[in-house]
Amino acid sequence: MQYINTKAFAEQQDRNDPLNSFRDQFHFPVDQKGNPKIYLCGNSLGLQPKQTSAYVQQELEDWAKFGVEGHTDAQSPWLTSHEDLAKPMAEIIGSQPEEVVIMNTLTVNLHLMMVSFYKPTNTKFKILIESDAFPSDKYAIGSQLKFHNIDPKEGLILWKPRKGEHLCRHEDFESLIDLHKDELSLVMIGSTNYYSGQAFDLERIAKRCQEENITVGFDLAHGAGNIQPNLHDIGADFAVWCTYKYLNSGPGSIGGCFVHEKHIKSTTIDRFVGWWGHNKDSRFNMRVGFDPTPTADGWQLSNPPILSLAGTRSSLDLFEKAGFDNLREKSIKLTGFLEFLIDELKDSSISILTPRNASERGCQLSIQMKNADRSLFEKLTAKGVVADWREPDVIRIAPAPLYNSFTDVYEFIQQLKHCLHD
Ligand SMILES: Cc1ncc(COP(=O)(O)O)c(C=O)c1O
Ligand SMILES: Nc1ccccc1C(=O)C[C@H](N)C(=O)O
């Protein structure tokens, strides 16, 4: 796409944008004068859809009206509320509805998945992750290794960028697999890296793991609602994600979990269980032994938080209306525009860390600051730009295609230019 560095161009793109009307369906934070801030932080916390309060209010009303009978009589009966979300969520992660369950939160789900899918033996016990994985993933994996009496120094293999580089190369991943295939039990990769914004080729990773009989799981925290990862077809064993970033379900909202069809019917797979994972036809018989639901629901422990599910339902309804392919098409243009305008600044104190190729990134661009200077980020914040700083040296900017506009990107660049010359 040919971009032009003018406000008129940005406004024209917005007029031509078939998703433009979704912007009005979100609450934008405002500054002290009541003007909307330039919100480019959907990679940390997605904005609140205006309709979410009605969805939550409905649950409160149903609770007031029905008490315990809301489990069956609420507008979305609480007993099956999470099941209704499996289908729209499956669209977003590229799976069958039976392979998805909305439950817990990301790190909890990661632990539960490792209970089932990290089965170290004396010889095959190592876990491979990307070196700059999000800290929670590193902690979870480190603690799982220790739980199995494996020293993380022995058990962890890091997929690192080469010296002097910032991004991981797939050929290096493959070399690591060649080198360690007989010792590797699990590969666990963040589908889109939180820091660099690099989106990995999940199909390529999964294929190489399958060739060597290595279990493969993905953390989609920065992928879900950003890039459709096609989990079923690529044969990922499991995946986990949160819904409060691109999926706009609200702070700390419920997470998601994918278990591939090849595992969901297993009655022998190890797992930590709870009553909500029990076959729902006999769940309330109470005195029978555990009989797992033959879908990803079989990994549930507890009954889900209904108010949180309401936020997820509200947002998924918007995703369904917008259509994921349309969102991705807009996202590529929008982030491309951001990249073009940053490059036009030709400022040597900043550089783009994220891959330049649209197929290797989602909507986030990570701007790396020379000398790890945080002051630019602080100036931008003072100017009403909402972005975030990630140690040691990155400002993350993420135009979310569901509610951000080309004008947002253009206005951000005006503020950036101002702050760089301030
Ligand atoms: C890649 C990644 N993994 C894990 C987490 C932690 O998620 P949670 O706090 O929902 O467990 C986050 C964000 O907080 C993340 O970005
Ligand atoms: N849930 C949060 C609560 C407080 C502060 C940040 C978060 C984040 O989600 C950070 C995000 N995972 C990140 O990519 O940095």
UniProtKB/TrEMBL annotation:
Q: What is its EC number?
A: 3.7.1.3
Q: Which pathway does it serve?
A: Amino-acid degradation; L-kynurenine degradation; L-alanine and anthranilate from L-kynurenine: step 1/1; Cofactor biosynthesis; NAD(+) biosynthesis; quinolinate from L-kynurenine: step 2/3
For this protein, the record's SUPFAM superfamilies field holds: PLP-dependent transferases
Against Pfam families, the record matches this protein to: KYNU_C
Keywords of the record: Hydrolase, Pyridine nucleotide biosynthesis, Pyridoxal phosphate
**What EC class does the entry list?**
hydrolase
Q: Which Gene3D superfamilies match?
A: Aspartate Aminotransferase, domain 1, Type I PLP-dependent aspartate aminotransferase-like (Major domain)
Where in the sequence is N6-(pyridoxal phosphate)lysine found?
K245
Cofactor requirement? pyridoxal 5'-phosphate
Q: What does this protein do?
A: Catalyzes the cleavage of L-kynurenine (L-Kyn) and L-3-hydroxykynurenine (L-3OHKyn) into anthranilic acid (AA) and 3-hydroxyanthranilic acid (3-OHAA), respectively.
Please give the NCBIfam families that the UniProt record associates with this protein: kynureninase
| Stated family | Belongs to the kynureninase family.
Would you tell me the protein name for this molecule? Kynureninase
Organism for this UniProt entry: Psychroflexus lacisalsi
Q: Which gene encodes it?
A: kynU
